[in-house]
Amino acid sequence: MKLSKFKFNLPQELIALHPAYNRDESRLMVLHKDTGEIEHRIFKDVIEYFDDKDVMVFNNTKVFPARLYGNKEKTGAEIEVFLLRELNREQRLWDVLVDPARKIRIGNKLYFGDDDLLVAEVIDNTTSRGRTLRFLFDGPYDEFKEALYSLGETPLPKFINREVEAEDAERFQTIFAKHEGAVAAPTAGMHFSRELMKRLEIKGINFAEITLHVGLGNFRDVDVEDLTKHRMDSEQIFINDKAVEIVNRAKEGKHKVCAVGTTVVRTLESSVSTMGTLKPFEGWTNKFLFPPYDFSIPDAMISNFHLPYSTLMMMVAAFGGYDKVMECYKLAIKEKYRFGTYGDAILII
């Protein structure tokens, strides 16, 4: 499968800059993968496609305010720092991306906030853009974390080309976000409202939760034509016994297992037993799913409409079938569906 097969012309105005007014009222395209039939619905109609004892699997990761703006010592140049992950709690070490990277060297100090609330020292170059920072903070860890997060802003992807607004702090999270560690939102889950969850529960749909801390690798450009040569960034995942039991019981009873989002699909497919069942797992995954691929765990999935050439779109194409998904994307553009993080959804069933 070649990268060039995922090229399409996406008009800029179809990239959603804001979420739908109500979470569950974005548009929903439904693809029946066996017949190729396509329907146009509203997201809350998703309930009509599931029955008693079917399972929906959600990613309960929580996004933290990962984007900071600081100034370089002496020159005062503004530097954007994107927190990727905490490396060492005691030493206040963080793996970060910096922009512009060319201005930052080992030993440089960066100052953040009024009265230089936080100071960080660059102690390592990990990649051309990546650095390791040590934050110089003498107080207790809780105070450090509070200071760090008070300076950070919601890490909207760059393709949402606008200033961060107050509503983003809430709308760039799912309502079931619990475990902090993501720098990007598991977008398919953002369509679920409390009212819709209640209605699904009353209908008898069971919920399972996994955790995948979404990293920036989702937005990294694929720069090889042969997709077998692309390497995904590793992301931390957790699948507990309870989720395993709910999913495997549904599969045993021939009920649907719906993965809510590409992150859930990747997590589920990263821990499959030889019998084709889900296994508990705690660790890292760099699984890259693209067509053709035989899925073991989910038989339905919900996703947003993704950007051209993205690994997220490739995974959707693997699940729904390349030709059918490309047809859906063509139709989505014609019907002016909204793309990206705050965009509309597709259910493949």
UniProtKB/TrEMBL annotation:
Any GO BP annotation: tRNA queuosine(34) biosynthetic process
Keyword Transferase: yes
UniProt GO MF annotations: S-adenosylmethionine:tRNA ribosyltransferase-isomerase activity
Biological pathway: tRNA modification; tRNA-queuosine biosynthesis
Enzyme Commission no: 2.4.99.17
Keywords: Cytoplasm, Glycosyltransferase, Isomerase, Queuosine biosynthesis, S-adenosyl-L-methionine, Transferase
Role of this protein: Transfers and isomerizes the ribose moiety from AdoMet to the 7-aminomethyl group of 7-deazaguanine (preQ1-tRNA) to give epoxyqueuosine (oQ-tRNA).
HAMAP family for the chain: QueA
Subunit text: Monomer.
Name of this chain's protein: S-adenosylmethionine:tRNA ribosyltransferase-isomerase
Organism expressing this protein natively: Ancylomarina salipaludis
Gene: queA
